[in-house]
Each structure stands twice: as structure tokens, then as C-alpha cells.
Amino acid sequence: MTFWQRLRWVEIPMALPVIFGGIRTAVVMNIGVMAIAAVIGAGGLGCYC
């Protein structure tokens, strides 16, 4: 098995849960920061005031 075959069939499928967990964490953090910024009046969320 070559390096690229091992990467494609073994390493990437094993890493997918961690990758998607990181994406989910980043999305939740961004939504939270946007909500807090809207509350304190930092603009954003489509407001061009």
C-alpha cells in the first residue's frame, strides 16, 4: 500500500470525526461571538449603521 493509498483509505477516514468536531466547535463559537457583539452594539449581523 502506497503512502497516498494509506492516506486516502485509512488516515483521512479516521481523522474525519475530529475534523468535523473542530468545524462544529468553530461554528458554535462564531455564532456566540456574533450574538454577544450584537448585544453590546458592535454592529455586524447585516447592520451597516
TrEMBL record:
Provide the alphabetized UniProt keywords: Cell inner membrane, Cell membrane, Membrane, Transmembrane, Transmembrane helix, Transport
Q: What Gene3D superfamilies does the annotation carry?
A: MetI-like
Q: Does the keyword Flavoprotein apply?
A: no
The record's section on PROSITE patterns has: ABC_TM1
Listed transmembrane segments = 27-48
Q: Which InterPro entries match?
A: ABC_transp_perm/SBD, MetI-like, MetI-like_sf
GO CC, sorted alphabetically, is: plasma membrane
The membrane topology noted for this protein in its Swiss-Prot or TrEMBL record is: Multi-pass membrane protein
* Presence of the UniProt keyword Cell membrane in the record: yes
Q: Where in the cell is it found?
A: Cell inner membrane
Please state the protein's primary subcellular location: membrane
Judging by the UniProt lineage, the source's domain of life is: Bacteria
All copies of domain ABC transmembrane type-1, residue ranges:
1-49
Signal peptide positions are: none
Any GO BP annotation: transmembrane transport
Q: What is this protein called?
A: ABC transporter membrane protein
Q: Which organism is it from?
A: Salmonella enterica subsp. arizonae
